[in-house]
């Protein structure tokens, strides 16, 4: 969900609780399904930095909520801001139009907000307006999709697309190796194949599988939509009469993938999802689905971005670190959610 080099691409993995706790003590343009509700950001443990401080206004700009993960981004940001009596949250109208987002960010600069959290539709195309904010003395917290110019943001926070692929590859590789599989048929359903975020996910997946002596048998993209997920999965199921494992990059499009699988009556394989949606977690929790795991890319990163913006605007650092200032870059880990740990993560899942 840009310069599409960072996205979600829906939990913070090893940092899903860790990042939230750390910050509080001081988370793809993907067109798709209709907007839906999402879990509120985790509160995290209280710390000295949570005590009221200097009043600050935080501006917020993100794409339109036409996808479950993006909808959850906005909800997490607003929820995090609402936890602080010293924060005034100033969001602008979400949009998928580049020029409209630029104008919206310019309005926040003119309003002289104390910090800006921006998830750009396109990092390259919004780079200049982000730089204008920084030049005006407004620190920019670049959320997920990275601006190419480091002078255009104070801090970047986002997920690890390559790490998502690695996590999925290890889960599938280990499970197949343990079962004694030989030359397994491994199918990969991507989001949008041309995006760097997708390519990063695929590379991580291939690299991890290689450590088990396995490789991807078939790969096709499903455009991050439920409809394409259904169609692509149906085609792959028809083309491969036997499949051992499937990795679907995106839990939102995974609704369509699972629908095609159920329609075909196929269950000889297991599947891994991507992002950490609530519906995917419920499938995993049921124990009766081919979906046995999902690898995280959580929209709770938006809550962490708001917390970082507050700390930066108040000239505070992260109290769990020795340094006096918030780091320049924070990459959140991707964790594997299975039936064994799904109860821990379900409250953080977003609705597709």
TrEMBL record:
<feature type="signal peptide">
    <location>
        <begin position="1"/>
        <end position="25"/>
    </location>
</feature>
<feature type="domain" description="Periplasmic binding protein">
    <location>
        <begin position="58"/>
        <end position="316"/>
    </location>
</feature>
<dbReference type="InterPro" id="IPR006311">
    <property type="entry name" value="TAT_signal"/>
</dbReference>
<comment type="similarity">
    <text>Belongs to the bacterial solute-binding protein 2 family.</text>
</comment>
<protein>
    <submittedName>
        <fullName>Sugar ABC transporter substrate-binding protein</fullName>
    </submittedName>
</protein>
<dbReference type="InterPro" id="IPR028082">
    <property type="entry name" value="Peripla_BP_I"/>
</dbReference>
<dbReference type="InterPro" id="IPR025997">
    <property type="entry name" value="SBP_2_dom"/>
</dbReference>
<dbReference type="Pfam" id="PF13407">
    <property type="entry name" value="Peripla_BP_4"/>
</dbReference>
<keyword id="KW-0732">Signal</keyword>
């Amino acid at each position: 969900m840009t310069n599409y080099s960072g996205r979600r691409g829906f939990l913070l993995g090893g940092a899903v609780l860790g990042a939230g706790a750390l910050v509080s003590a001081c988370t793809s343009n993907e067109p798709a399904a209709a907007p839906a509700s999402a879990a509120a950001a985790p509160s995290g443990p209280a710390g000295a930095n949570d005590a009221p401080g200097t009043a600050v206004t935080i501006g917020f700009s993100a794409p339109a909520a036409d996808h479950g993960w993006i909808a959850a981004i906005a909800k997490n940001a607003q929820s995090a801001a609402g936890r602080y009596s010293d924060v005034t949250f100033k969001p602008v109208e979400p949009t998928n139009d580049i020029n409209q987002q630029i104008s919206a960010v310019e309005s926040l600069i003119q309003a002289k907000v104390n910090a800006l959290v921006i998830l750009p539709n396109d990092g390259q195309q919004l780079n200049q307006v982000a730089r204008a904010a920084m030049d005006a003395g407004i620190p920019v917290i670049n959320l997920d999709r990275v601006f190419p110019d480091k002078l255009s943001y104070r801090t970047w926070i986002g997920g690890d697309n390559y790490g998502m692929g690695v996590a999925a590859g290890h889960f599938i590789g280990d499970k197949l190796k343990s079962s004694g599989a030989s030359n397994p048929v491994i199918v990969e359903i991507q989001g949008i194949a041309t995006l760097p975020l997708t390519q990063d996910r695929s590379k991580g997946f291939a690299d991890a599988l290689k450590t088990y002596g396995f490789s991807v048998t078939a790969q096709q993209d499903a455009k991050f939509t439920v409809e394409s997920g259904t169609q692509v999965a149906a085609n792959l199921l028809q083309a491969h009469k036997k499949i051992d494992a499937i990795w679907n990059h995106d839990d939102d499009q995974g609704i369509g993938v699972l629908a095609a699988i159920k329609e075909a009556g196929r269950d000889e394989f297991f599947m891994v999802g991507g992002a950490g949606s609530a519906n995917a977690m419920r499938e995993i929790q049921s124990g009766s689905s081919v979906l046995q795991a999902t690898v995280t890319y959580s929209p709770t990163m938006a809550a962490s971005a708001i917390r970082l913006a507050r700390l930066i605007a108040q000239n505070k650092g992260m109290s769990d670190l020795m340094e006096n200032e918030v780091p320049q870059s924070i990459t959140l880990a991707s964790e594997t959610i299975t039936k064994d740990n799904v109860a821990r993560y379900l409250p953080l899942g977003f609705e597709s």
